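In response to a reviewer's request, we include the raw inputs and outputs for one of the modeled complexes. The two entities were modeled together in a single run.
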Amino acid sequence: MALTKIEINPMTRLEGHGKISMFLDEKGNVDNAFFQVVELRGYERFLQGMPIEEVPRTVSTICGVCRAVHFTASMKASDGVYNVEPTPTARKIREIFFNAHYVEDHAAILYALGFPDFVVGPTANPAERNLIGLVNAVGAETGKLVLRKRYAAVKVLEMLGGKPIHPVAALPGGWSKRVTQDERKEIMALAEEMVELGQLTLKIFGDVVLNNPEYVKLVTGDVYKVVTNYLGSVDENDKVAFYEGTQKFIDTNGKEIARFKGKEYLDYIAERVLPWSYLKMPYMKQKGWKGVVDGPDTSLYSVGPLPRLNVASGMPTPLAQEAYEKMFSVFGHKPVHNIMGYHWARAIELLCAAENIRELAKDETLCNPEVRSKLGPASEGVGIVEAPRGTLIHHYVTDEKGIVEKANIVVATTHNKGPINVAVKRAAQNFIKDGVINEGLLNMVELAYRPYDLCLACATHALPGHDPLQIDIYDHEGKPYKTLKNF
Amino acid sequence: MADKKLRLAVLMAGACGGCDMAIVDISETLVDVLPSLEVVFWAPTVADVKYKDLEAMPDKSIDVGLISGMIRLDEHEHMCKVMRAKCNVIVAYGACAAMGGIPGMANMHTKEEIFQTAYFDTFSTDNPEGVTPQPSYLLDGKYDLTLPTFYPYVRPIQSVIDVDFFLGGCPPHHSVVLNALVAILKGELPPKGSWITNGKAVCDVCVRNPRNTDEKREMVKEVRRTIDGDPDENKCLLQQGYMCLGPITQGDCGALCPKVNIPCAGCGGPIPGVKDFGLRAVSAIASLMDNEDLVNQIPSPVKLFYRYSLPSSMLGKKVKKV
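The model returned the following structure tokens for the whole complex.
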């Protein structure tokens, strides 16, 4: 069979450059499509030999957009290495810090990536379908207001973490920085701004998306639907947990199939090496490797905002809980497989994280001086957090001096590699038929991977709301046939 | 500010996106600066313009190009060369571009070692067929899939193109980025080949510096890791035995790390006049030691002294055992 190859290159993604390769059969229908991640930096190797306490600020640089997540997961792993719990004060500081990251990151993603499709319009001129177009649409004052309120979270990150990006204050069993009463009061005030940002964000989502029947159809319809298992963390009340919880798997029907903590992840998750992508593809170990397919029998699972809301029975804070109930009442079922639901879930989580900070900052014990625990002997530790993009696992084995001997990192976007591949293939097969390819296809393909975000695209999720895409079409002999672009 | 808009291009090579986010973190003020700028290219992160469009622009048609990230792929090298051709001024923006950065620590290992860890040895890896990613692979006999070439070593950008200015930080603090943008807009740049810096060391701006507190500087009497004890929050970290690289690191950050009781790790780049950051760091720290034996107590010295700069050092890459 002579296949025509279509490459979408570059799509923006985590640390560098990725692409989508599609293959058309003789009738011009999509035979298959592949989401390829094309870079590797080798952290798991060069962390070997490093003192474990230096690892958090080093692995933070895996991603500068997810500025606090690798940092936090590896810090928790360092607790495990020394078999120690952080002091109650250190734990509160860490949680405020981590939730502040949620606020600034979810805000960046939504306003830069999610909303422009809806506010500016999915079929609008691609050159305007970005953050700048968004600001033009909502007005400069609203744009500035959003940026200012998001900056409240950046301020908290710098105050507690040292540097606002690639923070440094992590210590095994603690935190290097103590909080003064003045700082606590400042955090309380900043938290109010963040809560307002969360409410404003949900209002914008409601006004723009939910009040538009066409968009509601896009969000709840079958075009962008990927049926997988889901993984997310829940607290002791089965509510969504960001900083710490139990990792819970549900199947495609919403039935709980497993729970695990810490090192048990190795009993449930394996990462398949692929010869055509630098990124490995995880799957549920008990179900066995079944390839890149979704549906009730799939061994693929998804992580991130929508999966977290799918696996949990609710939100831990009152305003977010209200929004959560509204979301599932609109969909009318659970779990939700409609991937546009990621954006909605993201907005709900933004508000939840802001409420978390408001609650945590009320506590005067935040200013206690006890921020460091006494360490035990060093050996092995696993740190798991819910990064904004999903479950993130850092695992280290050290020698008795706490020098890293082995490292294993399973990144949120890695978990989603298979589902993203399915989403992209489905969109391609939906929209490319009988050899008819037009510019509209481009944004339809973009729409398929964008909800997952974003850590795919350190870059992409930084600002634009629009990924520049070029499709180079080659004939079956490999000769250039046609070029399409959306810029 | 100039009447004419300044034409700006931003490229992310082998970077994490932190340098891009530092620009975003300028926040509201960025909206005020934007009218003075014409962003003609910002990829793959922000603008809609693609590589091929940059390639099609006339040579020297862009005033300033910022490049973040190191060189690991053939694609990174190619795009840096395109940027050089199109921009009148190139700034190596951030620690990776200027020195190789944290990903440059990979130079202590060969490509084969890195692949061995990532695709075979890691705990959760499942690789029954023993495969590794290939530059070109025919899947199922019909899908020809390609990947960019992974170079054997990481390089800073000045190893592949001529660089006009350097900006330190991992990433540069957003206030530093704003200052640099304003300096560029006003045309107030230092001589070619310089770092855009206030010229001070982290120690110069650190409130813990004995010189700033009128105390006597003492020799370092022990080597301590940050897990060893709770530092006195008012005293110099180095003097307390914590390996702080403040003496040789540019202090444009305002000593952010010592402010939260963590020693400086050198992300700001070398103080003026220093070429090899790590060598100078070794020399500076060793000269402050009370006795020679203390030097042997520093864990993982390469990953301390060269954490951000190994690819730009005279050592550069893995030393072969003979």
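As requested, we also summarize the result in words. The mean pLDDT of chain B is 90. Chain B touches chain A through 88 residues (CB under 8 Å).
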